[in-house]
Design brief:
The protein has a domain at 1-15 and 30-133. The protein is built from 13 helices and no strands. The chain is mainly alpha-helical and 260 residues long.
Amino acid sequence: MNTFLLSTILLTTNLFAAVEPKDPNKKAPCLASKEYIAVLSFLRSEKSFQVTESDAQRISDQVSSGCENAAKNFTQSVLVMVEAGIPTRDAIKTATELSSYDSAIRNHFLEIFYIAFSEDQLALDVGTSLSLAKSLSIQFKGDTSRGVNDFKQALMYCLDQTGLNLPRPECARIAQRVAQAGERFDQESFSNFKKLDEFIRGNKMDLSISKSTDLALEILALAPAATENFITAFKFSTSDGGLKLPLDGALSFSKKLASK
């Protein structure tokens, strides 16, 4: 894959820069006509897309509803996805959907897509990369900035030789689940995942890295305070002054309390 255009567009749109907060009381005027004309001109100029005039007008109308920067966001998103190998029809459909979201959501989609698809990062296939990017942007119910940050931290921890040191596809799955745990409870989740993983692997549970990680992810998804409850309960259930339970019993007991 030629990653030059992909990385260039991401950098020129300040993808990794912090997004300036907008005043919720101020609403920029919707220059829909300008956005419509820009999108239509783009689609007409890209002959290789083979978009009919009626479809081009319909798409332009949809994108123009996104108002400020909708055309720019649409065209750059299409170019990134087409360059990556996504079929033109699917790229246009996804870019049209992205145009109705603010720039922060769109940037998070492209950032995760870049991480997932680039050969020097996760090198996942196009379909998996697209699905992952959507799950952490337009499908994410919560603070996408926090979700993306959880994903990136979990990914680095998983790939690092001093961390989990697992294969890239497996790390993508783990990092996605970490971010989605934070989505469910509307809180940062990576630190809890790391704390759970290190606790499980440090307590001689005789689990492989893959199984210990799955256990950490299972507990993380139970409740907002699951991490602290599980660790406290496990220590108590296995101690001489506590319940003195065997491993299976201690895990069952601790997961039960962690779910509250």
